[in-house]
Amino acid sequence: MEGASFGAGRAGGAVDPLDFLKQPQTILRATAWIFSIVVFGSIVNECYVNKDGTDPELHCIFNENESACSYGIAIGIIAFFGCIFFLVVDLQFQQISSVKDRKRAVLLDLGFSGFLSFLWFVAFCFLANQWQRTTMSKGASQGADAARAAIAFSFFSIIVWVALALKALQRYRLGTDMSLFATDQFATDPNAAYPGYPTGSGIESTETYQSPPFSETSDANPKVTAPQTSPQYLCHPL
């Protein structure tokens, strides 16, 4: 984006909702938000089952390991609220006038996205490993689809959050165009002449100062020759 500062336009500019929704970053965040709901929703609703269908006590379907279910729920909730937070940051990003604040926001996005990518990778490996060790029973069979969905969308979440981290890295590398925060008194063309000194009327002159050519100076100020006087004769005494 030409004239952009960390991927956004001039500070204080209006934000078009349609353009904002069409941005790849917004689409990725919305996708990650939906995936997080699928993961923790599947675990909470259907991944706590009875052992044999008659035991009133509920156990985690992933090899009866409560840590697996708790970890999946925790990561899903963190990703859920993280997506909402950064969606709000993206919406208000163009209103941030300070370059340093924009840089901090992009770095925070980069760090959070990279961290969530790692956490989702751990969640995928952990849930998949525990599911392989699960002994199938009547209760486990009832929640098998939910368990597979949690594992699958954990894997999909890795891809989405890695993509978000790469987008944040791209925005950070864009750097800052300081012309966004400069005044408009300077000419946009780098080859244009510097504006002249303002006159007494308060209006800047668009003409640049230029000294008159030497020939014009010579014509305007001709040499003045001294008048010739008649020679004086000296009288010698006889």
Automatic annotation (TrEMBL):
Residues 201-238 are annotated as: Disordered. Residues 20-173 form the MARVEL domain. The chain crosses the membrane at residues 27-44, 71-93, 105-129, 149-169. It is found in: Membrane. Its main location: membrane. It is a multi-pass membrane protein. GO terms for cellular component: neuromuscular junction; synaptic vesicle membrane. The keyword Iron-sulfur does not apply. Residues 202-232 have a biased composition (Polar residues). It comes from Pavo cristatus (Indian peafowl). Belongs to the synaptogyrin family. The keyword Transmembrane applies. Keywords: Membrane, Transmembrane, Transmembrane helix. This is Synaptogyrin. InterPro entries: Marvel, Synaptogyrin. PROSITE patterns: MARVEL (PS51225).
